[in-house]
Amino acid sequence: MTFKLYYWDGIPGRGEFVRLALEEAGADYVDVARQPGGTGAMLKLMKDAGGATPPFAPPFLIDGELVISHVANILFYLGPRLGLAPEEEGLRHVANGLQLTITDCVAEIHDTHHPIGVSLYYEEQKPEASKRAANFLKERLPKYLGYFERVLTENPKGRKHSVGGQLSYVDLSLFQLVEGLRYAFPNAMRANEEHVPALLAMHDAVAVRPRIRSYLASSRRLAFNESCVFRHYPELDRQS
């Protein structure tokens, strides 16, 4: 059965975390909003999911009659079906916890450029964004990166993967997190990367996986841009 992924067209955003899992697994899926009339269909489903609980916002995934929203929830569902989650139930919950921590980090990254309100343009909240970004780069970014480094180095199955002994959706999401941070805060990342060698090694190993490498070189891989969660505003990266 074909999975249907719904997310805003033109930006990788949060939908990219799901795309990477689908691409790595070679899954049959449709990126609906990139099809003619897809965005309208997505907005219609957000109002009326045909008997299912409508999702509050994209990304969401439809598999048959199931409508599943939120990145971590989608990946918790897809992981076992795509062979991208540990077989042990306990470790699946560990993976979900790590993915939720990534979700928290992404939310804080978003708030560096939109600290007051999502309905306001960045230019309407630049002073607040500058303060928020400075705090994030000084305190939160090293804490998040250090945590994921520790998760890798303390994994009983080895430091190549974040949970268990095989590739999981968490590894793919950490790859995307590093990619996004390098785009949004290149100076800050250069200052922090020497402290997270295991995280970077895992990132590099994901990048050369055959299906991921092919995906990254394809037109399906959308470029980061200043409409995305990860945005590069040089003035916000100066504090590093």
From TrEMBL:
Organism superkingdom: Bacteria
InterPro entries the record matches: Glutathione-S-Trfase_C-like, Glutathione-S-Trfase_C_sf, Glutathione_S-Trfase_N, GST_C, GST_superfamily, Thioredoxin-like_sf
CDD domains: GST_C_Sigma_like, GST_N_Sigma_like
Ranges where the GST N-terminal domain occurs: 1-86
TM helices/strands, residue ranges: none
Residues covered by the GST C-terminal domain: 92-236
Gene3D superfamilies registered for this protein in UniProt: 1.20.1050.10, Glutaredoxin
Protein name: Putative glutathione S-transferase
